[in-house]
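Q: What changes when EPU is included in the input?
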Amino acid sequence: MKFLIRGGKKLLGGVVVPGAKNAATKMMVASLLTAEPVVLKNFPRIGDTEITQELCELLGAKVDFLEKNICQLQTLEIKNHQALTLSRKNRIPILALGPLLSRVGRAEVPALGGDKIGHRPVDLHVRALTLMGAEIEVTENSYRATAPNGLRGANIKLDFPSVGATENIILAAVLAKGTTVISNAAVEPEILDLIKLLQKMGAIIELGADRVITICGVLKLHGATHTILPDRNEVVSFACLAVATDGKIFVRGAKQDDLITFLNALRKVGGDYTVDDDGIWFFRAGELKATEIETDSHPGFMTDWQQPFMVLLTQANGVSFIHETIYEDRLGYTKDLNKMGAEITVFPKCLGELKCRFNGMGFNHSAVITGPTRLKGAELEVRDLRSGMVDIIAALVAPGESVISNIEEIERGYEDIEGKLRGLGAEIVRV
Ligand code: EPU
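A: The predicted holo structure follows.
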């Protein structure tokens, strides 16, 4: 499938953001921890939740949609402790290790492998679960785990505040014997939302100062109903789209609390916003100005935001910098922007002040952007979810026609992107 886009128009109007992909998928896995129903409202109907639904069903869950965006999952019993026959894959199955070990004492999930944004190892997950009593065999294609004496609480210090490792530990610890303390934990809003769901299910989880999360294991969890927090990444995509096309877009559901760092960066670059009770308006304040961005763990500037922000920087006056400190290889998509007329050069040197794990390692993780440049339409192939959204935004900025292939990647994370864009006045068709 491809999108054919004719760009160069200001986009105007409103969109509604659904629940966050990166919370919904984890909550679906959390539902495996109980035999009772878990109801998720504001549920995003996207590729990644479909893939996770297949995972949950394979393990024994019954998944029903009470309404289009209300999903109920119930796993009366774990029918299968292996999830090796999934037809499509994402990075979620490794999070099922804890729930499976808690409920049936064994688990086998597919190996994840690297992808187009970096190597993405899961060593922190494996080390943490091992400290909690899991015995994990890493085979060529899978992680095979047992917990001969059950999972038990442990003190775990993460070398890096990994989102996935933090979630994996929490999901394993809620039903483990004793107390688990995670130091240097990730505290992204999506993780806090997962914690809120687990609390409703009967878990005891404390949030301390300085990235410490303490989980006191309980014997049993029960069902719950939860409304998933809005997708911050989708909000940022539409905010950048509004400013990049010099349009004005109201993003219903956008919450200021989770976007503070982004909103500051947007204003520095020359974008602006007004916050309403039920959403945020995004628009341009004047000429866009060069700025410097460094990605970081929450509450820093999120790695998933640098790609749409990059399009703004191609339209900003002067020389801008982006220093990506979360993934070593998340700037490959700048080649697409250069093909469209942008002037972006990538460097292995850290062009910023944050402590960075990639210093001196030779990964091209810093970018220098000279602007403004006039973008022109091009033929592009989507590399990964977030950079796919960049291809769309850039194509909507560029006068002329662009053809974007491999759009299934974008649909893993954005619900009805085509309909939403058309509603804003974009010329986009699927071919
Ligand atoms: N890392 C390790 N070892 C580990 C785990 C992580 O070295 O055991 C490294 C990774 O290689 C990476 C960094 O730590 O360099 C960050 O990884 P993290 O575990 O925090 O990320 P993740 O859980 O794999 C989630 C989101 C990503 C988002 C990141 C950072 C999901 C499904 N994915 O990934 O979202 O960029 O957190 O916030 O929640 C996306 O939505 O497009 C996406 C990639």
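Observations recorded in class: The pocket of EPU is lined by residues 22, 91, 118-125, 160, 162-165, 186, 188, 302-304, 326-327, 385-386, 413 (CB under 6 Å).
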